[in-house]
Design a protein that fits this description.
The structure holds 2 protein chains of 2 kinds.
Chain A: H1 3-10, H2 15-32
Chain B: H1 2-15, H2 17-41, E1 51-53, E2 60-62, E3 67-71, E4 77-81, E5 101-107, H3 109-112, H4 122-133, E6 139-145, H5 157-165, E7 169-174, H6 178-181, H7 184-191, E8 202-205, E9 212-216, H8 238-249, H9 251-263, H10 265-271, H11 278-290, H12 310-313, E10 316-317, H13 321-344, E11 347-352, H14 361-369, E12 386-388, E13 391-393, H15 397-408, E14 413-415, H16 416-421, H17 439-455, H18 462-465
Parallel strand pairs in B: 5-6, 5-7, 7-11, 11-14
Antiparallel strand pairs in B: 1-2, 3-4, 8-9, 10-13, 12-13
Classes of the chains: A mainly alpha, B alpha/beta.
């Protein structure tokens, strides 16, 4: 079995990016008070 | 011994390394995309403007025809041209056709409104709303906004700007910091000017004789500056240099840093420790002012820094002498506007900003810590008198003070706190972390002013026929 086949079989390779990005998005929302999700010139009519 | 170690390495290669590699690649790609989006969408990265002292104007204004770029690098980037009068507004119309209601709005940075485009400002929106309410009859509105001024400082505009504009109505936009700006002594304290050599129009009133002395504008104000804190020592600490390096090169880093420090100001203080706090600077200036002849007891009754910040004192009763002088000068300025209106042919309407009715975040925080949080509404208004640092803050204290002054002079007052409270959340009317009006705030305030003026047509039409219109 090749290395990648072994990796693929275990399906664990997506866990770390999932956790890291979930934490990252939570951190961005927390630090910006939600502003990071708003479009740039949100303060326009 | 080799076998378990080999197995451990193989486990890491199969379970950790692929995830780590994918995460890093995704972070790099997304970071690169975010950097590219920011570089393409951020029009400029710093505030820039040219100020000029216009002779006789009594306050610094922008260089006519120049460009003002204003940004907080998070939520607004505004690039606007200064009009020929030196204000950040559209060019005032040269002609005033018969039946036109011409309005001038005088105020501080709220009216200057560098955070929103000229077309979204209260002056522009009021033109549209009031014209519609008057059945299409023309309305012209100009904003005379200068940051940091109070009504006393705006007295210089009466002859130089307002008279040539021949308005029918002057709206005086008042905020809670105007009281301090109207005082030469409190302006000296906050801006570092000498109390008798002010940059702008200013007065001192002798508490015993009541004699009024003009102390500005003084072209040589710069020769009399009080204490200013020294710049931070160079070379800066390593973290500051690393931050500058990254912020200069990466728009993404810069934006993330700004977003983070807005929510966590302590991080900002750690990155850029102040050489001296604002309170320490003020204490040094107070010492200098007290040392001037005749100023020994000028701060009697006010124990700053073991007392409220100067703007907050105007929410309390009773006032120490230097604050009572500021209140008197504020009244004096309104009276001068009213009397000049009678001479020039315009009426005066006072609009009271919400800051006069609300308490700032720091004092709210202080109240919550001391167990008086129950006396605060969600917007930061008081529901009962509360004692903070030995002074009694009154519900809507500064608004009541302003209203008393205006009504004593027969000037009508529009309560923007009441008006805005009935139009949605008060916070929507402000730019977050900035405090100035958002475009929503400008629009709502324009609606409030428009309905008031439409309901009182004499504000526009009555004076046009009044004999006082003929200028002596």
């Amino acid at each position: 079995m090749t290395w990648w086949a072994a990796v693929w079989q275990r399906k664990r390779f997506w866990l770390m990016p999932l956790i890291v990005f979930a934490l990252l998005i939570a951190a961005l929302i927390a630090i910006s008070g939600g502003d990071v999700l708003k479009p740039f010139k949100y303060d326009r009519l | 011994m080799t076998r378990p170690r080999f197995r451990r390495i193989r486990w890491i290669l199969r379970n950790i390394l692929p995830g780590l590699a994918i995460t890093l690649v995704l972070l790099l790609v997304l970071g690169g995309v975010a950097e590219a989006v920011l570089r393409n969408s951020v029009p400029f990265r710093s505030v820039s403007f040219k100020e000029t002292a216009i002779k006789g104007g009594g306050a610094l204004r922008f260089e006519p025809g120049s460009t003002v770029r204003y940004t907080d690098m998070v939520s607004y980037w505004v690039d606007e041209r200064v009009n020929s009068l030196g204000f950040l507004d559209r060019e005032p119309p040269a002609h005033k056709p018969p039946g036109t209601c011409r309005i001038v709005i005088v105020g501080d940075s709220l009216v200057m409104a560098a955070q929103v485009p000229n077309a979204s400002k209260v002056q522009a929106r009021l033109e549209a709303y009031l014209s519609a309410a008057r059945g299409g009859r023309p309305v012209q509105v100009s904003g005379l906004g200068t940051f940091g001024i109070g009504q006393v400082n705006a007295l210089g505009y009466l002859e130089t700007v307002i008279r040539p504009l021949t308005p029918d109505l002057v709206v005086m936009m008042a905020a809670d910091n105007d009281f301090s700006n109207n005082s030469a002594v409190l302006s000296a304290l906050r801006y570092g000017w000498h109390p008798e050599h002010q940059w702008r129009v200013g007065y001192r009133r002798d508490p015993v004789t009541g004699k009024l002395t003009q102390v500005g504008p003084d072209d040589n104000s710069g020769s009399y500056y009080l204490f200013f804190p020294p710049p931070p020592p160079e070379p800066a600490p390593r973290r500051v240099r690393a931050h500058r390096w990254a912020a200069e090169r990466s728009y993404l880093y810069d934006r993330l840093f700004r977003l983070t420090t807005r929510s966590y100001p302590r991080l900002y203080d750690w990155m850029f420790p102040q050489v001296m706090t604002d309170a320490e600077v003020k204490v040094r200036r107070m010492e200098q002012i007290r040392a001037l002849p005749g100023y020994q007891d000028v701060f009697a009754g006010w124990k700053y820094p073991d007392d409220l910040f100067e703007d907050h004192v105007f929410h309390t009763e009773p006032l120490p002498p230097v604050f009572a002088e500021a209140e008197w000068l504020t009244r004096h300025a309104f009276e001068r506007f009213r009397d000049e209106g009678a001479a020039q042919g315009f009426r005066v309407l006072v609009a009271a900003d919400t800051t006069l009715s609300l308490l700032s975040n720091d004092i709210q925080e202080q109240m919550r810590r001391s167990g008086d949080g129950d006396a605060l509404t969600v917007d930061g208004a008081l529901t009962r008198p509360v004692v903070v640092m030995g002074r009694t803050l009154m519900p809507r204290g500064a608004f009541i003070r302003l209203k008393r002054i205006a009504e004593g002079l027969d000037l009508p007052v529009i309560d923007l706190y009441e008006g805005l409270s009935s139009m949605g959340r008060l916070a929507e009317a402000r730019i977050p972390y900035d405090g100035h009006w958002s475009t929503v705030g400008h629009d709502r305030i324009a609606k409030i002013l428009s309905s008031h003026i439409a309901a009182h047509p004499e504000l526009c039409d009555g004076m046009a026929a009044a004999p006082a219109r003929s200028v002596p």
